[in-house]
Amino acid sequence: MSIDNIISDAVSRAVGSLYSLDCKPDDVVLQATRKDFEGDTTVVVFPWVKAARKSPVTVATEIGDFLVENEKAVKSYNAVGGFLNIVIEPLYWNSVLDHITSTDNYGKIEATENSPLVMVEYSSPNTNKPLHLGHVRNNLLGYSLSQILKACGNRVIKTNIVNDRGIHICKSMLAWKHWGEGITPEKAGKKGDHLIGDFYVLFDKHYKAEVKELMDKGMSEDEAKNQAPLMLEAREMLRRWEQKDPEVRQLWEMMNSWVYAGFDATYCRLGVDFDKIYYESDTYLEGKEKVLEGLEKGIMYRREDGSVWADLTDAGLDHKLLLRSDGTSVYMTQDIGTAKLRYQDYPIDKMIYVVGNEQNYHFQVLSLLLDRLGFKWGKDLVHFSYGMVELPEGKMKSREGTVVDADDLMDEMVNTARSVSSDLGKLDGLSTEEIEKVCETIGLGALKYFLLKVDPRKNMTFNPKESIDFNGNTGPFIQYTYARICSVMRRATDAGMTIGDYSQVIPGPRETALIKRLADYPAVVAQAGNEYSPAQVANYVYDLVKTYNQFYHDCSITGEADEAVRSLRLRLSDQTARVIASALDLLGIGVVQRM
RNA sequence: ACUUCCGUAGCUCAGCGGAAUAGAGCAUCCCACUUCUAAUGGGACGGUCGCAGGUUCGAUUCCUGCCGGAAGUACCA
Q1: How far, in Å, CA of A224 to CA of A65, rounded?
Q2: Sorting pLDDT into bands at 50, 70 and 90, what band is A14?
Q3: Which nucleotides of strand B come closer than 7 angstroms to any CB of the protein?
Q4: Is pLDDT of A382 > 80?
Q5: A321 band by pLDDT with thresholds 50, 70 and 90
Q6: For residue A536, is it within any domain?
Q7: Per-residue pLDDT for A41 more than 70?
Q8: What is the pLDDT of residue A397?
């Protein structure tokens, strides 16, 4: 039981006994005591003032007296206005620490067979270009969210839906046939996803030239875009693809395999993975079936031109197209199909889609449609919506070539980590292998932490320079603290020190602050899981590290201190390291023992 | 035009189930290395919490309106 629970509980009893009011522990508002007052935690007593018909100070005093008398964890109190500042019995904190250290898998709850089965979809790339900074945010959020949900006792299935079909793929395929036939990633010395991306750009270049030529001949822009020979050719290719033309399919499979190999390398380096991957080429026909089923049930309707729509005006939304007049699927139809397959594959209780906020409307509609089509989790599906990543100089625009490529970005981060670390002499005495590992962990840690510490819903500015700043609220700062604690513990072990009994040591303010912080961890994880917010974990671990640094700065840990005092300090260091590693693991960030 | 989200220090961000003088980091300035990793710690400077109303004993937090920014309202994905 946490200290907050103990106090809430005692206060609720106090209010009940003093004023005969019904007060549940959850109704008690606790906050950290301001540092200019004495106390560890503060109860806000305003809520009971009116009913008690007494002044705020009187109420606070009466509750305070009750607590001192009836709750042994409470040592003393002071009442300031309507605020009751409570001082916890100092020795009590040591037992809190004891409890923390003896808890298996501290802060995490093991899932059982009956735990909710949650599916998290993230990444969801197109196969016509490599991953960029926006995908990086998506991947990190998705992975971290999955980790957090697992820690909260859910069974989690990480999934990815690959958009491997459509006109955009045909464009890359066509460009390859025209201007690159025979070229492979091996021959080009390039990752497959980058190679395909190049062909996509090449297509666009030639296509634009054609459009311009047609417009110069007096054609309107729209017409030119539709009549350009390359576009006609791409559409024809898509038709052949849908008819399963062996030649087109073969080319498609070969080029997709290049892309997947490229993606896999990026995912692997980023440290994210999936339990199950779906491909739209497999799901888009399923959606069609489901929509026709809905048509029979009267959930959808058909227009004169043959197109199928859903009327969502009763839910305050629009009419939504689900099948084109030629019977082909749109994006929404595919998502319905994917949902169907997933439901067949797993008895999921909850579905979470990690997708950018430009698709908020899409998911509102999807939720409604799935619900009407009878998916039990449809109504409560979660669209984990996140904002765009912008650059200091503005938005990323593929047209202007300002898109930050994921692979380049990771290289840059790791290179910077290497140069900064070596300038500081931190890499001295490490083997080449160790240096690579350390730089990789730090560089990626910097990137991940920078992207995860911000509230996902908000658009954010990614400043490469600032992200590589190893001071302040950054990943490396946290990793560094971890490494330093490891060093302390190594030193203690080398000197033959052990953690003995510290139950009679009265912890000082720095120690107490640290124990409190450590004690918060399970609640932080639970809340992050509730609100789907990796940022809360990130901000927590930063706070923890700051608190530890203050403690570290003030006292010698392995010095010639009294053995019991040293035991407490070692125990605190050790436990802090564990919690840091655990929290960073929830964020998908690695640690190193030396840096 | 309509819908949704955002607007907190010079910059990047916390906080907001309402509650005591609004919190960090970066940047600027000062202090502390005979200390287990100074990639540190302490301090100063810096805010009419977009604006205006409302509810409340009390609003950065809840409600309404306005202003500013972003996104979405496709037989694109």
Answers
A1: 84
A2: very high
A3: 4-6, 11-15, 17, 19-21, 23-27, 35-42, 57-58, 70-77
A4: yes
A5: very high
A6: yes
A7: yes
A8: 72
Contact between A353 and A332 (Cβ < 8 Å): no
Q: Which two tokens stand for residue A40?
A: 């560890």
Tell me, what DSSP letter sits at residue A243? T
Phi-psi region of A585 (alpha: psi -120 to 50; beta: other; left: phi over 0): alpha
pLDDT at A123: 95
Query: Which are the contacts of A273, defined by CB distance < 8 A and separation ≥ 6?
Result: A143, A158, A267
In this structure, is the CB of residue A2 within 7 Å of any atom belonging to strand B?
no
Distance of alpha carbon A196 from the chain centroid:
29
| pTM metric for this prediction | 0.95
Q: Which of A27, A61, A88 is the last residue of a domain?
A: A88
Residue of A268, A212, A204, A249 lying closest to A231 (CA atoms) = A204
Whether A346 shows a pLDDT value over 90: the answer reads: yes
Question: In the sheet that A117-121 helps form, which strands lie side by side, from edge to edge?
Answer: A276-279, A155-162, A117-121, A350-356, A382-386
Say how many domains are in chain A.
3
> For residue A46, what are its two tokens?
């305003």
pLDDT of residue A399: 66
Question: How far apart, in whole angstroms, are the C-alpha atoms of residue A533 and residue A45?
Answer: 31
What's the whole-number mean pLDDT along residues A362-374?
Answer: 92
**What span, in angstroms and rounded, lies between the C-alpha atoms of A91 and A95?**
7
CA of A317 to C1' of B73 (A): 10
Q: Specify whether A79 is located in the same domain as A169.
A: no
Q: Is A424 exposed, middle or buried (0-12, 13-18, 19+ CB in 10 A)?
A: exposed
Rg (CA), chain A: 30
Mean pLDDT of all residues in A227-244: 91
CA A102 – CA A99 distance, rounded (Å): 5
Whether the per-residue pLDDT at A1 is higher than 80: the answer is no
* Residue A21 structural domain: 3-88
- Predicted local distance difference test score (pLDDT) of residue A533: 93
Of chain A residues 250-289, which have a beta carbon within 7 Å of strand B?
Answer: 280
Domain boundary among A242, A272, A302: A272
> What's chain A's average pLDDT?
91
